[in-house]
Amino acid sequence: MVGIPRESWMVLAAAGGGIALVQTLRLWWGGASRRWRLAAQSARATAGEARAEKLLMKAGYRLVARQATERWVVRVDGEAHEVTLRADFVVARGGRRYVAEVKTGEEAPDVAAPATRRQLLEYRCAFGVDGVLLVDAEAREVHAIDFTLPMQPSSLRAVLVAVIAGLIVGAATVAAIALR
Q: pLDDT tens digit string along 148-178?
């Protein structure tokens, strides 16, 4: 059996060590770059919220709550599941209350972004407010968002019953006045 020269073993060991070092650095860099990116996003969001609060005050809104939470029951196959929602702000103006959600970046401040739109709709339903505001902190804009929701058949019946009851009461009142 032919032995491998000692120099070859040294070259193989050095190559293996080099590969291990490169792999270790690659893994470290991937983790570190994710942490740096998340830290930058967090700093951007924090600065955006501070800017948004000033924008809302300047637009005449009064701050009711920061980082407001709401428990909401979602039913899955009839079984109740509680979820907690956290909105950036609850504000008020003119006797009406709003959830204000602050967004930064390229896509998030756009209501065409599905995640943003769904979040705002969820807040509108869960918080029991009069409306929702989308605050584009970087463009320094506050947008009132309104969702046109379809009327449920049960709601339509309730409206119809109220209209008929109003007509009956109105007719009775007219008849009572006419008979005097």
A: 877 666 667 777 888 888 888 888 888 888 8
CB 89 within 8 A of CB 82: no
Q: What angle do CA 136, 139, 141 make, to 5 degrees?
A: 55
How many angstroms separate the CA atoms of 82 and 132, rounded?
A: 22
Nearest to 71 by CA among 126, 116, 114: 126
CATH 2.120.10.30 corresponds to the domain 41-149: no
One-letter amino acid for residue 63 of the chain: L
Interatomic CA distance for residues 125 and 64, integer angstroms: 18
Backbone angles phi, psi at 13, to 5 degrees: -65, -40
Q: What is the pLDDT of residues 56-68, one digit of tens each?
A: 999 999 999 999 9
Helix (H) or strand (E) holding 18: helix 6-58
* Mean pLDDT, the chain, integer: 84
State how far the Cα of 117 lies from the Cα of 134, in Å rounded to an integer: 10
- Look up residue 57 and give its two tokens: 């005050």
Q: Alpha-carbon distance 115 to 46, whole Å?
A: 20
